[in-house]
Structures are given as C-alpha cells and as structure tokens.
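Dear support,

I submitted the protein below through the web form. The confirmation email said the job was done, but the results page showed an empty box. After a refresh the structure appeared. I'm attaching both so you can tell me whether what I see now is the final result or a partial one.
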Amino acid sequence: EDLLRTVSRVHVGRGDTVLDLGAHIGEHTVPFAELVGPSGRVHAFEPLPVALIHLRRALAKAGVEDRVTIHETAVSDGAREATYFIQDGALGMSGLVERIPDAIRERVTTTAITVPVQRIDEIVPAEGITRLSFVKADVEGAEYHAFKGAERLLLEVRADNTAARGLYDSAGFGLLQTRRGYYPGGVDALVLALDLTQEAQA
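What the results page shows now:
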C-alpha cells in the first residue's frame, strides 16, 4: 500500500487520467483524485454495493467527487456479466475469483452475486480517454483477466495530419472513433486502434 502511494505520487499529476480497478472504499481513489486535480479525471471501478456506499462517502468527505467517475462494474476480458464472490468477514477479498486462505476460512461466509463486467478496451473509447497516465489494479486475483481486456493500443491524431495518418495506416491502425470538431478550427480528432493480439500472432 505504501509503495503504491509512493509510485502514484511520482507518476500521477495535474490533469492526468487514472483508472482505479477495484476501488473498494476509496483508499487510493481519494489520493488519486487529489493528485489529478480539478482538470484531471479518475475512473473508479467497484461492483460491491456496500463498498460503493463507503466510496461515495469518502469522495464527498474529501471534496473530490467532481473529478471521479464511478463505474459500478467489475473489469475483465469476458462476458457482460460474471459471478462475484462477496466474502463477509473479509470484504477486501471479495472479487471475481473465490480465494480465501485456510487460516480465516471458518470466519468467512461467501455469497455469490451477479455483477456487470466491462473491458478496458470498451471503457477507454466510451469515456473519450485518449491518454492514460496510471492504471491501478487490485481485483483480488483477477488482474490477468482485467488487463487481457486491454488488447488494443489507442492513439489520437488530427484528421488533417495526412503524414501521421499514413504512417499509422501502414502500421495497421484502424479508425475506432471520430471526435467532431475536437481541435481548434473545428478539425476532427481520429481515435485509432491497433489490435495487439494480432500483432503478437504475426
């Protein structure tokens, strides 16, 4: 925890965009929001209902709720819904993967619920994110699948920058989204994507 705070202070600054996967009750969401400032944005992902209550309270208490977008979903690489294991007695270990140490198993009651799931590849363009500064993942054993849902490299280019567009086209990037009039003078921004799984297979 202390190491994560130290690293985030080095890599997160004003105006940055952060993904907090497994925000829980906001132990790191609040510091992230303070670091990015009013011009930045933190996207906090947390599907556990009781944790969401505490997360919202923590953000309000710190006065940073205006710079945090809460996504009431889990993050993975698969279906739109998944089984989420609530560990009563060890809520911090709740997640898509059921794993309770033998030493505390007798004190923990597990309840399975169904939660919505998003892929990072879907979240980034949907939220208009063109630059990510920091991604924190604390999803209790599901980190591999969370990052497996981020298999596209995204970038943004001006529609009138023909030289850059030609370069990216030759590298295999395809058009994902057009942001109309994004740049001064009414120039469109083109969000391009490259499928990294295909690159790895090539």
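Response: this is the final, complete result; the empty box was a page-load delay. Helices lie at 2-11, 29-36, 49-62, 120-126, 143-148, 162-170, 196-201.
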